[in-house]
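INPUT
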Amino acid sequence: MILHGYFRSTASWRVRIALNLKGLVAEQVFHHLRKGEQRAPEYLALNPQGLVPALVTDDGAVLTQSLAICEYLDALHPEPALLPADPLEQARVRAVAQAIACDIHPVQNLKVLQKLRDLGLAEEAVQAWAASVIDEGLEAVDRLLADTAGPFAFGAAPTLADIALVPQLGNARRFNVALRWPRLLAIEAACLELDAFRSAAPGAQSDAE
Amino acid sequence: MILHGYFRSTASWRVRIALNLKGLVAEQVFHHLRKGEQRAPEYLALNPQGLVPALVTDDGAVLTQSLAICEYLDALHPEPALLPADPLEQARVRAVAQAIACDIHPVQNLKVLQKLRDLGLAEEAVQAWAASVIDEGLEAVDRLLADTAGPFAFGAAPTLADIALVPQLGNARRFNVALRWPRLLAIEAACLELDAFRSAAPGAQSDAE
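OUTPUT
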């Protein structure tokens, strides 16, 4: 398998965690997003969205969208499970992952922030945009997790929700968001006890700057 | 079941299609997004994200995030299936749904456009933002579907991909995006042969203006 990614991309980071949790190894190919390498014709032929990650399977199939890739890995390698078996619990885990992957990350990613700059917004306003999207989004995630058991987002083992949360907390720090959610930080601490999470972090990647 | 939604919300529209395809009936409660009713304390207690849809099950459980809700309905009522059985095909369907639900819709929704207005952007620039996000996103979706069989996005029956696509095409029209993708329009036409899609449209809802 080949994982096309970028050290700092939270979506790539999610897939790195999932691979690690499953004990799978993928060759990593890094595309420097700030240099626009994800818009090179060869990469667009692989992923027409021009986004990372993309996972190329051993059979040469190309998969895109981090959550879809994680669920694919989960289907092929069921242990340890990334989703609970119960449909209602499954829906709650997916909802938290999507609250991050749909409603926080795409609204504060590199592409959107560049669009804001292109519209003439001052850098201060651009940074404030990202911070406010993350702050508001994590506040909602914290409330969505108000009734769940720890130490992970949904109990005794990490799920797709933790896989989405840990990278988003990383982004929160990059944008100087005050991490005012003890529960979210406790979940992150539990995750970082695991090498699967630690070795997926941006700083541990070979393209880290 | 109670579906909390808004006639024009594409995320609510997706869940309406899924319910219809499954032959399920939910009581519909509408929240007027332009009047900010989704931020009323009673609604925030239900869904801390302050977004529609939210589905309240017969047991009183509250589910959020449209794609998670659709997959929940699919797990409980497997026929007709909203996802193929094969994990690779499943991943492709989910990727298209997420390319829309993560990378198009949240970047052009009411909330983001209001943020742009609050930053002093002229209405023309706000509309152009939405149109360009949709145009670029649908172009990628069209390419992701380049090798799939019709008449639906993934063959002979509608899936989660069609459920995401049809509402997004509706939004494209609202923002005057030139619909330059014959394949996407053919998929939409196939969907609109089905009453499940027709009766889920914004114009068919009791809160339509």
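end of record. The domain at 87-197 of chain A is CATH 1.20.1050.10 (Glutathione S-transferase Yfyf (Class Pi); Chain A, domain 2).
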